[in-house]
């Protein structure tokens, strides 16, 4: 088996039949780390005697760790290559899983979730850098969309697994299942080649890193892509944070059925990512991103109006959330491709900073939903609608006019 894996690694990434599938597995750390335990959040609160806002700390801690940790892995990958940092991150993730399963209070659970996230984020941040290593801009956006299709099973399967575990065991076993996913991810990593050659690696000296971040943070278009997409992420994280309590406690959905409602949104994201992977090669990633943020803002406004008016009850809410979450398929791949396209020599650092902004702002949005919790769906809806409007404003302001197709960009 090891010889077979070595043969796969020796092939060019674009030629390997396992390349996109393996990258999809590594990208799945986010949904596997968050979505699997969502059905258990109300039970965690009861078992650890913690109110809703404190239970949501554990989710915000994961988002924060997932964001901050990317700065570490991005810098290490630009210096040492992509594969070794990913392997180290997977091991740290496994340690966090064990800590979560053994904790006895919500504070320590949040701390171990932070550790778990710092390790988990190595996979997604370096996968994006690997894609930039291999593909030019619009092709990279197309590949990111196709990869999201591959990893699309994770956010569908994860909450279903979590819900089924709760039928037969307590919430602690969910974290043992997450640890098992770490083993699968390590096997996927073994099939991948190193995509960052030594001739393009950068220094870890503080002044060099500081200059890299200065370059990124003073680039107007980079900020437009990275910060603008962060607010779409914030809306998604508001849904992830608030939906377990809204569906299970407000509308009485059984925990084992929560995953089905959650999975509807992922089906929508898969459909839109399929459309995006084809349309982006014709219209360009900037045009598809602009369409995405306009539609996301409109769907956010519709969500707030539906909740405020009580239109359609549970299914009215589910329909509006389905629309918003589906439209993120026009935003994430295109914004990341745009953020990375001008910085091939430090793609890991650029990917890490964008990911840190996305998950840090997402952590704040999850915390705000818990802080505003009032027993209704309005806090979740208001945060989603507000963040979508901010994303649209940032796209119009920082990126400005877009061209239909940018043939010459690499």
UniProtKB/TrEMBL annotation:
Major facilitator superfamily (MFS) profile domain span: 17-403
Record's bilayer topology term: Multi-pass membrane protein
Transmembrane segments: 12-34, 54-73, 85-104, 110-131, 143-167, 173-192, 222-246, 258-275, 287-308, 314-340, 352-373, 379-400
GO BP field: xenobiotic detoxification by transmembrane export across the plasma membrane
Top-level taxonomic group: Bacteria
Keywords carried by this UniProt record: Cell inner membrane, Cell membrane, Membrane, Transmembrane, Transmembrane helix, Transport
GO terms of molecular function: sodium:proton antiporter activity; xenobiotic transmembrane transporter activity
GO cellular component, one term: plasma membrane
Locations listed in the record: Cell inner membrane; Cell membrane
SUPFAM superfamilies: MFS general substrate transporter
Family: Belongs to the major facilitator superfamily. Bcr/CmlA family.
NCBIfam families linked: efflux_Bcr_CflA, PRK11102.1
Name of the protein described by the UniProt record: Bcr/CflA family efflux transporter
Organism for this UniProt entry: Azospirillum humicireducens
Lineage: Bacteria, Pseudomonadati, Pseudomonadota, Alphaproteobacteria, Rhodospirillales
